[in-house]
Amino acid sequence: MSADARPSSPGAPPEGAVLGKAARENFPVAPFFLPAAWRDDLMAVYGFARLVDDAGDGDLDHPDQVAKVLGVDQPLPQTRRRDGSDLPTEEETAFRLALLDGLERDLDRVFAIVLGTCGVEQPRHPLMRALVPLVENHGLTADPFRNLIQANRVDQQTTRYATYEDLLGYCELSANPVGRLVLAIAGVSTPERVERSDAICSALQVVEHLQDVAEDRARGRIYLPAEDLDRFGVTEADLAAPAAGGRVRDLIAFQVQRAGTLLDHGAPLVGTVRGRLRLLLAGFTAGGRAALGAITAVGYDVLPGPPKPAKSRLLREAAATYVKGR
User: Fold this and answer.
1) pLDDT confidence band for 35 (50 / 70 / 90)
2) Radius of gyration of the chain (CA)
């Protein structure tokens, strides 16, 4: 049993606001050189992941519309914190958790449709309906999708990570499922490839955290492990400065090296595949390396804002990774 991937629904929020964010990522989400079917599949995965992240971060353009479509009755908070910070209020956190619950119920509808359950309601959100043909055509399981939702629940409850291992445990939920979905869509999943993919995806997540130190801190979250803050003598107040001091730069340099090592461990995945998939995986890996290069180029001062790599650097990194296969 199947469902239309992109039907319209009265009151449904536009998909473009979510999917349009693909161009801002460090890596190509669904590049032109892929077959149209692959691009559609990857955009369906991206649309789901971005929708869930935006719900968890409070970044939805029309949260009230999304709540209405999903049947969420938790009221949208009308007030912000009095101190003017970006930290969510208890009411905002409750609303975000309710949205995530609503999205998981919609995910249940996706898999019920695919299983042919009689009388089941169609998924309510258009980006969730786009998952139906994806799951059906590739025999995907619910676990990767549920893990991405759970990662955003964790973000509502956990704002600090004691150790690097704790942070990697978070990446198991927040990043690694995406790589596993890509391998499954391409039909090339093996235990070795999954292990390499996990390393790449965790590295990309760590890189994103390094780029967004200031933004995350404003949201009340610090993804730099507490043990490393202590090791380099960095306080949370240091991360609130307009520019990084020497100790913060040393800390970020250490994290850049660590992320690079993780990326290098996963990069041989590129050499295990051929053709357009090889080019796609080279692009993912190159995006991480180029972002690390951009952080290095600003002297590890990430506090003024996210350092972004030039497209020329990304293309050079992608070409080198494609040729070497790692």
Assistant:
1) confident
2) 20
